[in-house]
Amino acid sequence: MGIQEDLEQCKNRAEHEGVREPLMDKKNQSGEQDGSFAQSSSKESAWMVYLSTFVAVCGSFAFGSCAGYSSPTENAVREDLSLSLAEYSVFGSILTFGAMVGAITSGPIADFIGRKGALRVATSFCVAGWLAIYFAQGVLALDLGRLATGYGMGVFSYVVPVFIAEIAPKNLRGALTATNQLMICGGVSVAFIIGTVLTWRALALTGLIPCAILVFGLFMIPESPRWLAKRGREEEFQTALQKLRGKEADIYQEATEIKEYIETLERLPKARFLDLFQRRYLRSVIIGVGLMVFQQFGGINGVCFYVSNIFESAGFSPSLGTIIYAILQVVVTALNTIVIDKAGRKPLLLVSASGLILGCLITAISFYLKVNELAVKSVPALTLTGILLYIGSFSAGMGAVPWVIMSEVI
């Protein structure tokens, strides 16, 4: 909406009408034109989109591995390195500080060196971080490694969904973007499960596996066509788009739309941070940023980082609890990728938010009963129910949907 309003305010209205007309005409010419994106998603051509998405979401899996590392390793790390509870708490939480810095710098990095370049930067930080954790003999190396993996997480959190949204055809965009959250959950779940049988140093080495796949996979997939077009690299843009849509696919319409959209943006005044607070953008900013704020302040990191300790404090087996938690998280997130384009964004968010509230209440009640020694035998079951309801509800909506809505409204 903001782009249309800016165009209407331009002096030469006829010129901009000319920019929009081809988009209008081509979208309404024939059934073949309307189905161009569907055709480009045929079995013969969609494999490169799927391969590129798989390589990109290895970054999401690496994200999840970083997030899930601290929960199953707490007791072992504290014992081996003689850490106090406060020192381990710093180790666990410093990840989010690194992620915050990574998220802030990810946009300029992705715009300057490309989406693939940004993925390489994030991978480098994660590799350095995991190696620092593996070789750590004290708290300093441990924290620096955790900080580095957090930075990689922050870059991945922005670049992966943006890259997928830019390479995917419209009819696959919602489902493929949702795989970002699925792979994050997969990384967390695998860390939880194998963390019950591996040492904390060996678990750190497993974090290198998705990074290795990402490093080699990036040599096999094309750069984002939209970024190439924005940088004026016409030949590479055409080649990348053709590679993604298939050798026999007609990319003329899509290529024209991408270039016209970018040209339109180039004609507009250069955006500033304060422009986000203009009235015409305010609704989109509130929706997009607000959902991300609620997602993070809903307590997901606290539950994810210390779920093993939560179960142990409630008197439930931490190993069994984390395994059940991990399996449920993956199953619900996988189902979410199937229904996200059918059920709609808003219904999923409403159901998810309701479940989060109920899950938190049940968990809070269970610990209230424990502290006051009321119905103590019911505490483990109530805690398990509350935590599983919480993570199931988060995975059903608040985990993936805000990322999709952010790309659609802003």
UniProtKB/TrEMBL annotation:
Keywords assigned: Membrane, Sugar transport, Transmembrane, Transmembrane helix, Transport
Record field: compositional bias (Basic and acidic residues): 8-29
Region Disordered, annotated ranges: 1-38
GO cellular component, one term: membrane
Subcellular location: Membrane
Domain of life: Eukaryota
Annotated TM spans: 47-70, 90-110, 117-136, 148-168, 175-194, 200-221, 285-308, 320-340, 347-369, 381-405
SUPFAM superfamilies: MFS general substrate transporter
InterPro entries in the record: MFS_dom, MFS_ERD6/Tret1-like, MFS_sugar_transport-like, MFS_trans_sf, MFS_Trehalose_Transporter, Sugar/inositol_transpt, Sugar_transporter_CS
Statement: the UniProt record of this protein carries the keyword Transmembrane helix: yes
Recorded topology in the membrane: Multi-pass membrane protein
Pfam families attached to this UniProt entry: Sugar_tr
Domain Major facilitator superfamily (MFS) profile: 52-410
CDD domains: MFS_GLUT6_8_Class3_like
Protein name as it appears in the record: Major facilitator superfamily (MFS) profile domain-containing protein
Source species: Populus deltoides (Eastern poplar)
Lineage: Eukaryota, Viridiplantae, Streptophyta, Embryophyta, Tracheophyta
